[in-house]
Amino acid sequence: MSHYVFEAQEISQLYKKGKNTKLANDNISLGIERGEILGVLGPNGAGKSTLIKQLVGQLKPTSGRVLYEGSEVYAQSRRVASEVAYFSQDPHVLSDLLVMEALVFTARLRGMEARAAKREAQALLELFEMSELSGKKLSRISGGQKRMVGIGTALIGHSPVLILDEPTNELDPKKRRLVWNLIEEHNRQGATILLVTHNVLEAEQVVDRVAVINHGKLLAMDAVAKLKQRVDQRLRFEIGTTMGQRETAERELSAWGIVQEGGENRIRLLVEKHRAAALLEMIIARSDLAIEEYSVLPPSLEDVYFHIDREAEKGEALHERVG
Ligand SMILES: Nc1ncnc2c1ncn2[C@@H]1O[C@H](COP(=O)(O)OP(=O)(O)OP(=O)(O)O)[C@@H](O)[C@H]1O
Asked: pTM value?
């Protein structure tokens, strides 16, 4: 048995619409190891959903091939459908069903006996604190509630492989925590899990390895700790400014390190360790910068992600200049 559950071999995806073409994935090779949680990180439009659709056999790569358990994914679509639970970003195929029906129907498709399917569906709805919605149509419940039903359909029946595309989008903090716990629990019970998310800070707590994708290219793939070594000579400054004053502070701070998106009046800055003391002195001395609070932290997976992306962009710019 291959130790890879899924393996992508040099896959590319060229979307064509009239005269427009888009190379969504560019020569990606990767393997998903049995029993791991692999996180796929990348900004909007990076090519993550395209990669997942290729892996599960919904989209045939323009070139390259995808193996599931060592053989071509297309040659075994029924096996993939019964073993791989896929939670897509748009899980509304079941929207004409009632909440309970959607869960039971999915469990039955995975081979569960009717009574066991109903029991598990009820248990999941109870856990989600959504039992009172069991007789409601999916099209009549809120976006977050629909997502939870989608998560339920991914979890019900305990598939050996889970593929989750943005599972915690639109969820409130309590539900997000619940979903991350359930993902971890399924993994402890042996499931291999592929997880696409923008929520890097939360994903960091659960993933074993991370693949970073941007512009259709695989920029890095490694264990979280290994990736963090790339930025371990840096510190993260979290800075809050007076409302409406962020830009002034940001202009000054950008000379000190890599500025990341932080929010309306927040700045996140990745700074080389040897410059941190001088930066602190500057922050304390310069009251004109309207900095109200600051903290200094070790780098997170999110910092690694920004760093890898930035390095790749610098490389590409250099490539363009040379080429
Ligand atoms: N069916 C399609 N036809 C043409 N272009 C497409 C199609 N699907 C995706 N694309 C384009 O391919 C690129 C990759 O899209 P993809 O959906 O894989 O990105 P993503 O990383 O999942 O993004 P997001 O995080 O926003 O969901 C984007 O530029 C997108 O506009």
From this structure: 0.84
